[in-house]
Automatic annotation (TrEMBL):
This is HNH domain-containing protein. Gene3D superfamilies: 1.10.30.50. Residues 113-146 form the HNH domain. PANTHER family: HNH ENDONUCLEASE (PTHR33427:SF3). Residues 1-33 are annotated as: Disordered. It comes from Coptis chinensis. Residues 1-12 have a biased composition (Basic residues). Residues 13-26 have a biased composition (Low complexity). One of its GO terms (molecular function) is zinc ion binding.
Amino acid sequence: MKPRTKKDKRRTSSFSSSSSPARNSSVVPRATSLHDHELITEPTFDFEGVQITPELNNNYFNANPRSFPYSVKQQCWEKADKIKGRDPERWRRDYLGNLVFRKLTGCAGCLCHDYDHIVPFSKGGKSTLENCQVLQATANKSKGNRMEMSKADLIQKSSYCRVSGRDMDLLELSAYGNVRRGQDSGGCRIQ
């Protein structure tokens, strides 16, 4: 029994269809639908016995995920150098001394950062705190999976940007809705 084509469509006022069993073992009884008062039958296929395994494309089930878990990213951020006068939850310096903003991850701007594997994952590096560093995204992309790049070479590959305190305030205001200073900002405090 071959599937019906558009030429084989039958006009009918009934919703019933032929209930003849399928001859091909991979084709089960036909599905039917009503389209503009025409009965259209299409073969459906049996996927019995097909299993989807979560290990194929889900880092949650892997023993060594390629990306860092959230808790490791939090601790890695805490390891990065603080910036005097700025909220350490929002601003840090990466391994190379570049200024990075917490909300900007994975983009290509000069304030954007990635969580970098010091020993690349492709070369056996683990996704652990000891193998994690905050690194400006541009420098991280230049580093790739190389381990032999010197700090000086990475600094040359970094995106340079000059950011004033006012610029930092505007970024914080747009991202968080307020501006927070670090505890070590000095100056007078209104009480």
